């Protein structure tokens, strides 16, 4: 993030320390004149990486997740580490329309000016589709797609479309092709990617829209085991939460339509695009049939 971006976030003045590092001084009371970054899934592994990275850069934060207690604890830790950083929190169930409306009502009541939306929340249930029940399929679909589209709509109704506003959605490499045994997740992430691409064209010159497409992100034990089970390709496609967050923020700053994170994921994408669809499906089914994930850790 450049100096101009930091000043737009904070309404701040910039000074340079003896070591050449940039320091930011808040120009007013907490939140006064600031434009906030709204981060969903803020208490999770990847969401936490975005939180820490943006806090380091002095960006005021509006954090949401399902647990009020975890959000309050996170805000407390941020205040201890970054005493001058404006931080707001509001719990939200992204699957619920009234809860999403309450999130924006809180923002309106607190007069939270928005600059950036980082939609991180996602449900990565992986199993044969016939084993889903109604609760699982509705939950995954609503968090991965409906919640994202709804929050983007509410965000756009409040953020100034001045060319500096940013919308960043975390998609997945799973969106590059249909995926047996990960079919619903792959479909929702493909829908998110296509939505972001269309929206980016609509908002050209007024807002930046990027869908980032990482591979595995080792944020939970079950994900780590899943990465390990997929052998070489699982290992090389995985990136740390911080690496994904850094690449994502850089991509949206440059207004990339989409960003595939990591060299090996670009290799996978290239060769997948060359392979006939029946071959792709056969290989994916063989790799993914023996593994499952049925866990969402943000409680």
Task: Give a written overview of the molecule.
The chain has 299 residues and is an alpha/beta fold. The chain has a single domain (32-288), classed as NAD(P)-binding Rossmann-like Domain (Rossmann fold, 3-Layer(aba) Sandwich). The chain contains eleven helices and nine strands. Strand 6, helix 5 and strand 7 (165-170) form a beta-alpha-beta unit. Helix 5 (134-156) packs parallel to helix 6. The longest helix has 23 residues, at 134-156. It is globular, with a radius of gyration of 19 Å. The model is unreliable at 10-31 (pLDDT under 50).
Q: Rg to the nearest angstrom?
A: 19 Å
Query: What's the shape?
Result: globular
- What is the name of the CATH architecture? 3-Layer(aba) Sandwich
Counting structural domains, the number is 1
Tell me the name of the CATH class.
Alpha Beta
The stretches of 5 or more residues where confidence is low (pLDDT under 50) are 10-31
Secondary-structure map with pairings?
Layout: H1 3-10, E1 12-16, E2 22-26, E3 36-39, H2 45-56, E4 61-63, H3 68-81, E5 87-89, H4 97-109, E6 114-119, H5 134-156, E7 165-170, H6 183-202, E8 207-213, H7 221-229, H8 231-237, H9 241-253, E9 258-260, H10 263-274, H11 277-288
Provide the descriptors you would attach to this structure in a database record:
single chain; two-stranded antiparallel ribbon; 48% helix
What's this, in brief?
With 299 residues, the protein is α/β, with parallel strands linked by helices.
């Amino acid at each position: 993030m450049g100096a101009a971006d930091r000043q737009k976030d904070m309404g701040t003045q910039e000074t340079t320390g003896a070591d050449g590092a940039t320091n930011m001084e808040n120009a007013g009371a907490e939140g006064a004149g600031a434009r906030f970054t709204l981060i969903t899934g803020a208490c999770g592994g990847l969401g936490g990486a975005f939180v820490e990275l943006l806090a380091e850069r002095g960006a005021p934060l509006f954090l949401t997740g399902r647990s009020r207690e975890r959000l309050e604890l996170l805000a407390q830790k941020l205040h201890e580490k970054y005493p001058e950083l404006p931080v707001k929190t509001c719990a939200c169930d992204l699957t619920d329309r009234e809860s999403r409306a309450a999130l924006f009502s809180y923002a309106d009541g607190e007069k939270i000016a928005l600059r950036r939306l980082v939609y991180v929340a996602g449900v990565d249930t992986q199993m044969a589709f016939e084993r889903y029940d109604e609760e699982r399929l509705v939950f995954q679909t609503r968090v991965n797609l409906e919640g994202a589209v709804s929050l983007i709509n509410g965000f756009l109704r409040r953020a100034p479309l001045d060319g500096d506003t940013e919308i960043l959605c975390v998609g997945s490499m799973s969106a590059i092709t249909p995926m047996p045994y990960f079919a619903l997740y792959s479909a929702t992430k493909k829908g998110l990617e296509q939505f972001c691409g269309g929206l980016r064209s609509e908002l050209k010159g007024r807002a930046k829209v990027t869908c980032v497409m990482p591979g595995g992100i080792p944020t939970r034990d079950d994900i780590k085991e899943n990465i390990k089970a997929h052998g070489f390709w699982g290992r090389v496609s995985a990136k740390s939460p911080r690496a994904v967050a850094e690449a994502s923020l850089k991509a949206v700053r440059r207004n990339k339509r989409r960003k595939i994170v990591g060299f090996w994921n670009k290799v996978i994408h290239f060769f997948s695009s060359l392979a006939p669809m029946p071959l792709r499906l056969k290989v994916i089914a063989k790799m993914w049939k023996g593994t499952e994930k049925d866990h969402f850790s943000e409680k």
